[in-house]
């Protein structure tokens, strides 16, 4: 992850990136005869991408790498956009960098090899169990904000909650006696998620802190609060995760969705049933769960070896 640029550097980077975006949009509108609606949509997509690149300290298009693009598409995937929207955003990026390559502004096209998944989803990397432990340990649990961040990470890793679900949790959504938490998912569909021991303890530590920010009236029910007593936002959550991932020396971009993906993958790696993970993630269809999880062939072979009655039989070793 790039270092955090200064305010002046941020402004210079933003101006430089938007200058190239404006040039590309002008070419589309006046040189290619693209419809005004498409130009407007591409402009919004590329402005969003330029905003994203600010956090990475990217100041010129020739600094953009496939890693940046994968991280951006992974962040978009967390929002679970329609496949058509994801395809348009990818098309805007491809068109933008193709034009820059043709004009000699960049030495190579970072979009080359970037493929659209059959379902339109781009998945972030999964944390190893060791990296997950390092992230859980990164917040300073002697401070109010550190206690909050520790509780956030433990809850996300314990429940597999989306960013919007996490910041949307109210205090009365936690069922302490049963170790459950109620999440409000897509389409305002509710589901119950399991609150593990570490998550429950981190939450209790956070809520019992007398120095915890006092909630504003509009956030009176919110579980997770910002420094000024307002409900935490998804954007703030993304920054919190990124900050502590850097402190934990995790050598790539980590988002709230990375924790959700890690939650599912680690369950499967330890033998959890795919349909059980489907329920825990709140997916309506099993195929969606299969998109969010990837099981190595080695893991499948271990499951087979442990479960199949004839797997241990000594057979022919080949010619």
CATH-level-2 architecture of the largest domain: Orthogonal Bundle
Figure out the total of helices: 13
Rg for CA atoms: 22 Å
Structural domain tally? 2
Helical content band: 40-55%
State the shape.
globular
Instruction: Spell out the helices and strands N to C.
Output: HHHHHHHEEEHHHHHH
At the first level of CATH, the class of the largest domain is: Mainly Alpha
Kindly report the oligomeric state of this protein: single chain
CATH homolog superfamily of the largest domain: Intergrase catalytic core
Give the tally of β-strands. Answer: 3
Structural class: mainly alpha
Strand content: under 5%
Strand order of the largest sheet: 1-2-3
- Report the major sheet: 3 strands, antiparallel
Alpha carbon gap, first and last residue = 50 Å
* Low-pLDDT residue intervals, each spanning 5 or more residues: 1-11, 118-122, 314-319
Mean pLDDT: 82
At the third CATH level, what is the topology name of the largest domain? Answer: hpI Integrase, Chain A
Describe the structure.
The radius of gyration is 22 Å and the shape is globular. It starts with 6 loop residues before the first helix and ends in a 12-residue tail after the last helix. Strand 2 (180-184) and strand 3 form a beta hairpin. The protein contains 13 helices and three strands. It folds into two domains: 7-102, DNA polymerase, domain 1, CATH 1.10.150; 129-301, Intergrase catalytic core (hpI Integrase, Chain A, Orthogonal Bundle). The protein has helices at residues 7-31, 36-54, 66-78, 83-102, 129-137, 144-159, 163-167, 197-207, 234-247, 256-269, 274-281, 286-292, 297-307, and strands spanning 174-175, 180-184, 190-194. It is mainly α and 319 residues long. It has a three-stranded antiparallel beta sheet. Helix 6 packs antiparallel against helix 8 (197-207) and helix 6 (144-159) packs across helix 10 (256-269). It is 54% helix and 4% strand.
């Amino acid at each position: 992850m790039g270092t955090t640029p200064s305010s002046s550097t941020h402004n210079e980077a933003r101006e430089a990136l938007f200058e190239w975006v404006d040039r590309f949009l002008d070419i589309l509108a006046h040189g290619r005869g693209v419809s005004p609606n498409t130009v407007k949509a591409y402009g919004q997509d590329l402005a969003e991408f330029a905003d994203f690149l600010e956090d990475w300290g990217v100041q010129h298009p020739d600094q953009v790498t496939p890693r940046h693009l994968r991280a951006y598409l992974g962040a978009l995937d967390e929002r679970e956009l329609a496949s058509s929207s994801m395809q348009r955003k990818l098309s805007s990026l491809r068109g933008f960098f193709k034009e820059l390559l043709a004009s000699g502004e960049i030495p190579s096209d970072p979009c080359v090899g970037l493929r659209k998944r059959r379902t339109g989803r781009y998945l972030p990397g999964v944390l190893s169990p060791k990296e997950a432990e390092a992230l859980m340990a990164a917040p300073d649990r002697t401070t109010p904000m550190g206690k909050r961040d520790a509780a956030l990470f433990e809850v996300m890793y314990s429940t597999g909650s989306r960013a919007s679900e996490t910041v949307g949790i109210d205090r009365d959504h936690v069922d302490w006696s049963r170790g459950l938490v109620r999440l409000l998912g897509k389409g305002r569909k509710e589901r119950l998620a399991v609150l593990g021991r570490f998550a429950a303890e981190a939450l209790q530590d956070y809520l019992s802190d007398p120095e915890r920010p006092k909630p504003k009236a509009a956030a009176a029910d919110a579980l997770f609060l910002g420094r000024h007593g307002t409900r935490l936002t998804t954007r703030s959550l993304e920054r919190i995760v990124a900050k502590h991932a850097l402190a934990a020396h995790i050598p790539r971009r980590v988002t709230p969705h990375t924790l959700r993906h890690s939650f599912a993958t680690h369950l499967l790696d330890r033998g959890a049933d795919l349909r059980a993970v489907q329920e825990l993630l709140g997916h309506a269809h099993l195929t969606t769960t299969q998109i969010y999880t990837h099981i190595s062939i080695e893991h499948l072979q271990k499951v087979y070896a442990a479960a199949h009655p004839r797997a241990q039989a000594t057979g022919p070793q080949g010619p």
